[in-house]
């Protein structure tokens, strides 16, 4: 893999989990391109399939899950959906930096952070381990932490927010050029969150990364992402440049998400929670539009036909009602 920011092309990706009711898709026929050097945000409520999609970038979906169809082409690595165990192990960390959701729990409780950092370096053939430690301390210092102290600490000695930042450091420290951050700021207060997102943007630009940020918080995406993909029930329902999607959302789900956030609406009294609850694997419709149960624009066709993503310039939206209206 070259030192340049890689492009990523996800094509027709379906990921299923084995359940008592059979194998059910958590991600269904998803296509998404991460442009080299861009920050892409994937946003959606809990259970929409964001983490499963992100794990597919590392081919790290664990049983009872599996990639059932599709490709994940990463420049310099090829189709990671087809890579073997050893090739994948090498790619993780060195080429693809990853902060798992709830980074709090991904640290080893028995080892200090510093020991885990050295293990990570050794397992990826880093010769200059002193340099690695220096780099880790610098990253931690940028995120407002005392690097030496953190590296000497065990997980239980760190707060949730500190662990979150350690997770971000571990994702960046090997100098991967594709970085995936799954809920990077959930354990943080608003000020620390804004500070971390600023650092994510700075490091992204300095190092020339391709970055994917997964979050349920559309406000996080608004702050950090160039492009935005909205997921619901395992499908991407709308995507495009963040400013355009947030400025003029087309899909009724995107509109609902935006209306629910006081920060984006601008007036707390005008924020309205999205009615209803997101579907689970067992309840997500296997036919027709996945969002129809909660949709004010629902039409008969939504019961039977899955809306396909329709492109308009750099944006796509998958909604029968929007397509009918815009082509009327
Ligand atoms: N190991 C598993 N076994 C069975 N079902 C699973 C498993 N992991 C995830 N799922 C289901 O797959 C769907 C998508 O989950 P996923 O974690 O990808 O969504 P998400 O959007 O990241 O949500 P969250 O933010 O809550 O993690 C959910 O319905 C979830 O219950």
Verbal overview:
The chain has 328 residues and is α/β, with parallel strands linked by helices. It has one domain: P-loop containing nucleotide triphosphate hydrolases (Rossmann fold, 3-Layer(aba) Sandwich), CATH 3.40.50. The chain contains 13 helices and twelve strands. The strands form two sheets. Strands 6-7-8-3-9-10-12-11 form an eight-stranded mixed β-sheet, with helices on both faces. The chain has a four-stranded antiparallel β-sheet with strand order 2-1-4-5. The longest helix has 18 residues, at 190-207. The relative contact order is 0.14. The model has no long low-confidence stretch (mean pLDDT 90).
H and E order: EEEHEEHEHHHHEHEHEEHHHHEEH
CATH class: Alpha Beta
- What characterizes the major β-sheet? 8 strands, mixed
Mean pLDDT: 90
Query: What is the terminal separation in angstroms?
Result: 47 Å
CATH 4th-level superfamily: P-loop containing nucleotide triphosphate hydrolases
Total helix count? 13
Secondary-structure class: alpha/beta
Which overall shape is indicated by the principal axes computed on the Cα atoms? globular
Secondary structure tally: strands: 12
Helix content: 25-40%
Gyration radius, in Å: 20 Å
* CATH architectural group: 3-Layer(aba) Sandwich
Write down the oligomeric state.
Answer: single chain
Low-confidence stretches: none
Strand content: 15-25%
Brief sketch in words of this structure:
The protein has helices at residues 50-56, 85-94, 113-123, 129-142, 147-151, 160-172, 190-207, 218-224, 242-247, 252-259, 262-265, 301-304, 320-326, and strands at 8-19, 22-34, 39-43, 65-74, 78-79, 96-99, 178-182, 210-215, 227-232, 235-241, 310-312, 315-317.
